[in-house]
Amino acid sequence: MRIFVWVLRFVVFGVLVAFAAQNHAPVTVEWFGRQWQAPLAVVLLATALVGILLGLSFTVSTLVRQRWTLSRLRRRLEAAQRTGEKADRTLPTV
């Protein structure tokens, strides 16, 4: 499995290098009245990186809420096991 992951990484890296080598023509980007020039590959890769970071930032709140719920349920299970009660198998509504 590790070999497959490394091969996949090298393939992705190779594709990105080939993409950057073939798309080196400068493009002008205008944003909020400011202009700058950069190679097309840099603009596209930067845009993809910003999209990835935005997507990850939107998932943080969900992950935090899930971890909080999981820790709360674990505490309830441990308390039920200590007292010898049957654990409640219903999930709380959020």
- Strand fraction equals 5-15%
- Low-pLDDT parts are none
Helical amount among residues, as a percent range? 55-70%
Q: Could you give the order of the helices and strands?
A: HEEH
Spatial gap, N to C terminus: 38 Å
DSSP helix count?
2
| Radius of gyration (Å) | 24 Å
> For the residues shown, what is the average pLDDT?
86
Instruction: Indicate the structural class.
Output: alpha+beta
Number of distinct beta strands: 2
Main sheet makeup: 2 strands, antiparallel
Oligomer class: single chain
Strand order across the biggest sheet? 1-2
Global geometry? elongated
Short synopsis of the structure:
The protein has 94 residues and is of the alpha+beta class.
Your description of this structure?
This protein is 69% helix and 13% strand. It starts with a helix and ends in an 11-residue tail after the last helix. It is of the alpha+beta class. The model has no long low-confidence stretch (mean pLDDT 86). The chain has a domain at 26-83. The protein is built from 2 helices and 2 strands; from the N terminus they run αββα. The radius of gyration is 24 Å and the shape is elongated.
